[in-house]
Amino acid sequence: MRAAGCAGRPHSDGAGEHRASIDVHGVLVGCAYMDTTDSQKGPLTMTVSDVAQNAFARAQAGDERAFHELTAPYRRELQFHCYRMLGSLTDAEDALQETLLAAWRGLSGYEGRASLRTWLYRIATNRCLNGIRDGRWRVSPPEPVAPFQPPSRVAAKM
Fold it and tell me: Each residue of 66-101: pLDDT tens digit?
């Protein structure tokens, strides 16, 4: 795949080839620039997945900033996911905090069989369902239904 460059930035010399990997969600998961003039050099830049692996290793070692780097791209969509499940912004924020805390505590158990995004969604879903089951959060009640048939507009005009 040839493209303008990593993250939309053109590479400095024109003698190379850009390769990008996009996951099923359209997220850039790998990006490398290969110098095609000298095959012995290899990649001139670290790939996005190398950076993520580096941040993941640092997070597992206890680096909070690295954990924030890993989870920051997913925070907003996880909060929205929790909001859809719980129907309350305040409860969704609480669920998100519990999700990130559980992910931080369980980082050593993450085996990488699924993407980090999938793993975080799984934790968020379970936290929301557990909160609903335990009664910590109430799901917003459905719209009230009138106990009678409301008059039609045509009948009201007569």
Answer: 899 889 999 999 999 999 999 889 999 999 999 999
HSE-CB of 47 using CA atoms within 13 angstroms = 16
CA distances from 7 to 23, 38, 77, 158 (A): 15, 24, 21, 65
pLDDT digits (tens, 9 = 90+) for 12-38: 445 545 454 444 444 444 444 444 444
Beta carbons within 8 Å of 153's beta carbon, 6+ residues apart:
none
Q: Which residues contact 74 (CB under 8 A, 6 or more apart)?
A: 116, 117, 120
55 with 41, same domain: the answer is no
39: containing domain? 6-45
What gap in Å lies between CA 111 and CA 115, rounded to an integer? 10
Has residue 157 been placed in a domain?
Answer: no
In the chain, how many domains are there? 2
Say which CATH number the domain at 117 has.
1.10.1740.10
Task: State the maximum Cα–Cα separation within the chain, in Å, rounded to a whole number.
Answer: 88
- Identify whether 24 is part of a domain: yes
